[in-house]
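Sorry to interrupt, but I need a hand with the structure work. Can you supply me with one protein entry, sequence and fold together? No commentary is needed, just the two lines. Leave the record below and I will have a look.
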Amino acid sequence: MKPLFAFLSLLIIASTANADPFAGSDPRIGKKLVDQSCIACHAAKFGGDGSKIYTRPNHKVKTPEQLKAQISACNTQLDKSWFPEEEAHVAAYLNQTYYHFK
């Protein structure tokens, strides 16, 4: 019984390892939140439309987890009071538009 349990556990872990890190989130909602809350700050820091924060060669975000953490940090620092679902929508939008994490 133990080998079967171990095998099933590994199977579950392996099947979620390649899962979409932003599944269930809506990039359209994320875009609205970014347009309302992020663009002005990013433009002030980087000029223009502010998208350089995502496209600069030395950008900090290299993984889906780092993207989620950065969004959460901005949410907290700027007191946006977004719910976790809203942060996830923003992550889905930024991933779809700029990062393309799998």
Summary: The two ends are 35 Å apart (CA to CA). The CA atoms of residues 4 and 55 lie 46 Å apart. Residues 22-99 form one domain. The chain has six helices and no strands.
